[in-house]
């Protein structure tokens, strides 16, 4: 102990009961006790009022309400600033997709090294490996879809990064590459082998769910179009009385061009006059705050006139008398009650059309049964005296080489169809009225995917949503990607139409199913 200097020896101890042996204060009775009363002003007292103390466990209400009757306004609580609150575990940084590519086409990962748990150099080397294998996998479709390999490379790498750890990342990429090598080479962007591992698995799950639905007449009966609905949407419901087929071709006559709307003389392909036109449809879009009508094919305003493509003049007919005069309409054969009736109960049908001297005529017919199996696919040879003007390859997929293999005329095609379908068969199609018209069939048991409640155009008749859009939206598949050289496939479209109906039926079942919580 240090020796006391006696600085407080002249001050009386404030503790009257002090019994300390070495107290610093004096205990003499002659020394007056100090006055400890301290005067505090009212304002100071108000300032010295202790603050509200927030309990450790806050109530659910984040505002403290003044209990006085004069004020009921919420008062901000003494809650710590948001930046000081613990908001849970930090989210794992993810790869940021980029559109930047090396000269070789390899995608470049653009992100800070600090934002990645796996070194960026390691990830970039894995991206290169993935890209090389996606290029091999997509070798047959890469020319028409040049960005497909790079886009799927980045998405695949991100899938692995999001699920792997720093130590398992490299092995996970190598395992993914091994699975890529086992995939079947796709022949179209809608093939099951196209996509990341997640995409492929999702396709499998969707296909399994859709394939499990077996379409029957009883299941489709509620969705068959009524005669009134068929008339509203342009279906023909009656066969004309006259025999028809009296005017198969208009060669040498004057018609109005469907492409440029100008009158022209109908000529066969090798002699046809040239026409400048837009193969796309006009639609409205906002340009500098104004609504402008432009073409889907080239984005040029409709007001500019002219065209972006060149081809022969063609014409299209839609009235029942005109079509009947080219080739007569008829109904399918009657259903038989005995076992000899081999007609299918449900089919999906699609046709491809070309332009001829007899207007637009069917050039390919494809039919699949209720399970999606192909049962009929034929190229149609034009009737006698009917010559081709334009193969319309961009949409029909028909080329001069393919057409040269056609053997059966429409009358023979109809006879073949009679062995597969009859009047009791439910025919599924998209904008099915067009297919039936070009086949010259009148049928009353139709399910049209363009007219099912889930697929209808919001503006109603005569507008219909495109099959390609519906398939992409509801099935996650891409169809009709052939472009100007390959066009559409009626087999692909008929199967897609059937799957749309299965998807729709599955959704209807799910709505009617009782809740699991009940």
From TrEMBL:
Q: Keyword Hydrolase on this protein?
A: yes
Q: Which UniProt keywords apply?
A: Exonuclease, Hydrolase, Nuclease, Nucleus
- Region Disordered, residue ranges: 43-90, 184-203
What are the Exonuclease domain coordinates in residue numbering? Answer: 345-510
What SMART domains does its record include?
EXOIII
Q: Which family does it belong to?
A: Belongs to the REXO1/REXO3 family.
Q: PANTHER family from the entry?
A: FI18136P1-RELATED, RNA EXONUCLEASE REXO1 / RECO3 FAMILY MEMBER-RELATED
Write down what this protein is called: Ribonuclease H-like protein
Lineage of this protein's species? Eukaryota, Fungi, Dikarya, Basidiomycota, Agaricomycotina
